[in-house]
Automatic annotation (TrEMBL):
UniProt-recorded name of the protein: Restriction endonuclease type IV Mrr domain-containing protein
Top-level taxon of the source organism: Archaea
Residue ranges of the region described as Disordered: 272-294
Length: 311
């Protein structure tokens, strides 16, 4: 199910540069939000690739495009903006610490969470208790070149995913910032295991807006669940438009297969493989019809054109 319910005001159909410029003028619109809309309406490419394009384009825009920058020119120096926990921080955490961070992020939508580090024989790391259901998640925070394999999925399939007390999970999933191999995807699909990759993690953390400084509070003080809940209560409430979304159901489980050829094949049938022989296709487009080959240089030329338009 798509998270995007309607087209936002900043989005100009068919005009990616203008859409990104419009969104950048509002400092509250995260790059992930822009990526979701453009990935749905403009690009047939992996979500992470579209995110790279959005970030690169934003970086090449004049500083005055940003609402924050324009206001700064008229005021005294301000402290640097707060940096929030993002997907790059996840790869450095242990599964237990990752469970605390992602559990905190998910509980910002609703409910509470428990970690499974103190429960024997469970193959999952995080239990998210929503109002009416529970979700069990096995977490694999990893470096980008170490995707989750079929062996890891089999461990979850064959292991115990239900805590000894409380509700049995209605959803069992695997979360990894490093993606999943093709065999891992196949085994998960056959076993009714949901896979959550870069897209889901990035969106959860973007929505939750946990300051990086909160990592020390959450991880280094051995806090109890009650203390963590108290800390979360001190954070600003999420907007209603975010809290009413289901981060599991409304953010589709988009897997991120590690190898480029597999990723492209899984993400869209219309992204060509570089070494694949091509017939005459449409030159200079970001994507083509299913019966045409794409143009590999189009993305790079697109980014260069964005930079040139602003000079």
């Amino acid at each position: 199910m798509s998270r995007t319910k309607s087209r936002p005001d900043w989005y100009e159909p068919g005009d990616v540069p203008t859409s990104i410029r419009n969104a950048t003028r509002d400092a509250t619109i995260a790059a992930e939000v822009v990526t979701d809309v453009l990935a749905e309406h403009e690009f047939d490419a992996p979500w992470s690739r579209v995110l790279d394009i959005v970030k690169t384009t934003r970086a090449n825009l004049p500083e005055s495009t940003s609402e924050f920058a324009r206001r700064s020119e008229l005021s005294t120096a301000r402290p640097p903006p707060v940096r929030f926990v993002d997907i790059d921080d996840i790869s450095h955490l242990s599964p237990t610490d990752c469970a605390v961070v992602l559990g905190t992020a998910l509980s910002r939508y609703e409910g509470m969470f428990r970690t499974a580090d103190d429960v024997d024989n469970l193959v999952i790391d995080l239990i998210w208790d929503k109002q009416h259901t529970s979700v069990s998640l096995a977490l694999f925070p990893r470096v980008k070149d170490a995707p989750v394999t079929e062996t890891h999925v089999e461990q979850v399939v064959q292991g115990d995913t239900a805590p000894p007390t409380g509700r049995s999970p209605s959803i069992v999933g695997i979360v990894s910032n490093a993606g999943f191999s093709e065999d891992a995807q196949s085994t998960a699909a056959e076993s009714d295991i949901e896979l959550f990759g870069q897209h889901a993690i990035s969106r959860w953390l973007s929505d939750a807006q946990l300051p990086v400084s909160s990592l020390e509070t959450l991880l280094e003080n051995d806090r109890s669940p009650e203390e963590i809940e108290e800390f979360v209560s001190t954070l600003p409430d999420l907007p209603q438009s975010i809290r009413e979304q289901d981060p599991i159901e409304d953010i589709a489980a988009k897997t991120d297969v590690q190898t480029i050829s597999v990723t492209e094949a899984k993400a869209t049938e219309r992204i060509p493989v570089r070494d694949q022989p091509s017939s005459a296709g449409q030159y200079g487009t970001l994507y083509a019809d299913a019966g045409e080959d794409g143009d590999f240089g189009a993305f790079e030329r697109f980014e260069e054109r964005i930079g040139g338009d602003e000079e």
